[in-house]
Amino acid sequence: MNEVKPINLVGVTACPSGVAHTYMAAESLETAAKAAGCDVHVETQGQIGIENQLSTAAIKAADVVILTNDIGIKNEDRFKGKLVLRVSSGDLIGKSPIIVKKLMAKLAEV
Known about the structure:
By secondary structure, the protein is of the alpha/beta class. The protein is built from three helices and five strands; from the N terminus they run βαββαββα.
């Protein structure tokens, strides 16, 4: 069995209203990933537009991309060829530590 190592991940969060859940999901993902020792960058697509836009370098370096599936993500074509996980903003808010741990374990199998 392979050792579970921290991963490099990027995420984009958005919700229908573009207010609370967008930012709560981003904060939860960042907190869980950092607690697991992962490198994490999260872009928000909220009511005031795109914030913390992911750089090309961050996307290229990512082992996995996490996208919320509550509404469409702008510029999603940036992630072509990357491993993408789609989850609801509610799941990111409530289950980010579990999601990150499962991703780390899954990537260790590869």
